[in-house]
Each structure stands twice: as C-alpha cells, then as structure tokens.
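Report of the visiting student (M.T.), summer placement. My assignment was to run the structure pipeline on a short list of targets and document each run. The first record concerns Secreted protein.
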Amino acid sequence: MSDQSRRKFIKHIGSTAALLGIGQLAAMAKEQEHIELLQPEKRIAANDKIRIACVGMGIMGFGDVQTAIKVPGVEFVGAADLYDGHLTRVKEVFGAHVYTTRDYRELLKRKDIDAIIVATPDHWHDTIAIAAMEAGKAVYCEKPMVQQIEEGHKVIAAQQRTKAVFQVGSQRVSSIALAEARKRYQAGEIGQLNVVEARMDRHSALGAWQYSIPPDASPATVDFDTFLKDTAKLPFDPVRFFRWRNYQAYGTGIPGDLFVHLISGLHFITGSLGPTSIYASGNLVQWKDGRDVPDTVVAIFDYPASKEHPAFQMTLRVNFADGSGGGEYTRLIGTEGVLEMGWNDFKVKKHKLPEAPGYGGWDTYNTFPKAQQEQFVKNYDAKYPVGKRTPIETSSAYAAPKGYDDRLDHFTNFFESMRTGKPVVEDATFGLRAAGPALVTNESYFSKKLINWDPVNMRIV
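After the run finished, the structure tokens were exported:
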C-alpha cells in the first residue's frame, strides 16, 4: 500500500490514531507494515467529588481502588471485607481515615458514599450489586457480572428499576485499542468474518489460582459463615476462602474468569449479541489440589448471522497446564485478512486472493497431455494479465502508548456516567450477554452436551 493510499484510507475511516515513522519502530515493522500509536481521549477534569467504597478487598479490590482514585475528584472512604487482615491492609495503604467493616451493609447506609465497587467472590455479586443500587449507589461490578444466569436478569431489572449507574468491570471494552480495532473491523479490513480463535494459557501456581494464604487465617480473623452465603455449610477452610475460584460453589471457573474477557471484547468489536450454541470439553490435568473445576477447557461457540455480522464460529481455550510456559492471542479471521488482538495493541494482516487461481504444483494441470497444457497456458495468459496473479499482502500494527491503562479509562467512563448521565460502556445487559455464554460453557462442560442459548433473551433454550 502506498503512502498516499494509506493516508486516504486512514482519513476515510476517521482514525483517531497518530502515525509514527516506520524508522522509529523498525524492529516491529515490515516493508508493507506501518504502526500507529493510539492516543487516549483528553478528559475534562471534574470539580465535583465522588466518594467510593469497595466490598471485597482482595486482588481485584485493591487494584480497582488504586486505579479508581487516579481519576480526578474521586476519594476512597470505605471498605468491607470478611478477613480482618484485608481491612488492616486497607488502612496501611490508603490511610487510617478509611472506614472499614466486615458488613457491607454498613457502607450502603452511609450518605457520604456515592458508588460501590463489588469485587467479592462471584456468588456474592448479584446480592451486593442489587442492594447497592436500591440504596441509591452507583455500582462498578467486577466480571463476571453474576454466577448464575437468573441472577443476571435480577441485576438488569434492578438497574432498570432504580435507574442507577451500573457498569461491569471488563475493562478491555474501554481500551482505545479495542475501539480502534472495532473501526478497522467495521471498515471491512478483514473482509467477511468467518472464524474467531483465542487462547489464554498459563503454567504457574499463581496463574492457576493457588493464591497465598495468610498465616493468621482462622475462624477468629475470617467470617467464613458469611462467606458461604447460601452454599453448603462447612467447617472453616482457609483454602476455600482464599482460593475460592477453584470451587463451583463460589466462582465460575475458567470460563467466568477468563473466557468472559474474550467474549466481552468480541461483542464490543462486532456488535454481536452472542452465540446460539455452545459445546465445551476439558479436563483436570495438573492442579489436583481439591478443586472441583477443570484446569483445561476448550469451547466452541456458534454465532448466527445477524444485521451486525455474518455467521461465524469461535473457539476459546484456556490451559493451566501448558508446558510451553503459557501465552495468549485472539484472532478474528476474515476472507481477506486477520485481526490479531493483544491486550492494548493489535495487528491487521491482509491476504487478499488474486483474481487468477494459479496452476501447476498440486494441481490437475500436470496430468494434462502436453498439447492441452500449452492450450491451457495460452488461455490462462489471455484471461489473467500479470497484475492479477499476485495476492495482496499488507500488515499494519496499532498500540496504546507506553503506560496506558485500560482499567483507568474504564473507571473514567464509569465516573463520567455518574457526573453527566451519559451511558456506561458496559451496562448490565451487556454484562449478562458476556457472562451468559461463559456460564453456559460450564453447563456444557459438566453436563457433557451441547447447550443452545438465546442471545436476545439471554436464556438457555
């Protein structure tokens, strides 16, 4: 593609990207590849203060709060958690002034709290999110939005009833890279989408959710009975409390933790409402530590044709026993190219077929009599000039600037919705359309059968 053609193309699709010289990124570029550095939108600093509290001060809770308070005008004032050590750590990190409690309902009673971050184990998401909305709070709920499909419909109903600002925490959908990828997809750069394939593999104890357990974990420091909620009553077990993702009762396994990220991104790029059938298989290969969920899952999703996109198939895989060391990719494959997603970067590689089909090689041409071969070549040369015999191949790369944080943009969008009333990026309906197929993946895995899904009404058929 010539420089002139490239500039015309960029102008045509209204890119927000700033072009870099190829020489600056020679290590990443090829002869027919350019790279563009994507620029975040400039935000207007707000004067009004938003006070937030977080329920669940584990890995995501601390990460969410540390990101949220980077947004101008946001103040962290309260935290709830069932482990006393987490609450002690809150004061060490954020200050002694932060109000802490084991009972999240104490946060909902406070008039000086405007928004609640829900970063608890999955089986508590719906209860706390609904109670917070009914208490007049805005809610940022970690993914997956819910643990059970019916809970998702209750969250949607609560959002519609209370008119609360509610956003699901799949931060990828606020990424400037994903926004640019959607532009490229909608501009037809890869032709007609037909296959999506993604993998997110790991090979480490922490990557397989064998999180550290504090030495002081005991019935005195952990409210284990409240953690159990409405699940089976069990004696105190610190492993279940601190490694809850390993159990069906409290988490959603690989699909709810990781597939939902990939599904959210796909739905954002394509505008899809979801698949109509899902089949999953897998195994518990390496991490036989008492967990009752698999450490390897492969799922096939069939997406129907709609006004937003053609019919296509998606295959997702996560392998926690990947002896190669792990890795990840997401590829949207079309008839003329492929969109290869990183996290905050992507490439578009095009391979457009020539008009001429070619001959020779692994072909019946070699079986023709010599006279027929000569006649075939004569006819072929007359029909296909030289310029129509070569595939068109190009490669373009796009990336967010160094230090870019999509979670910060996601929280910025959330707080802007609170301040201005503009729609959130990922509301409860979007959240269930992303979580639903992930939850159905578990249903398929454990039932060992294909499950049909209604993406419009968000229910198992």
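Residues 50-172 form a domain with the Rossmann fold fold (CATH 3.40.50.720). The chain has 13 helices and 18 strands. I thank the supervising group for their guidance throughout the placement.
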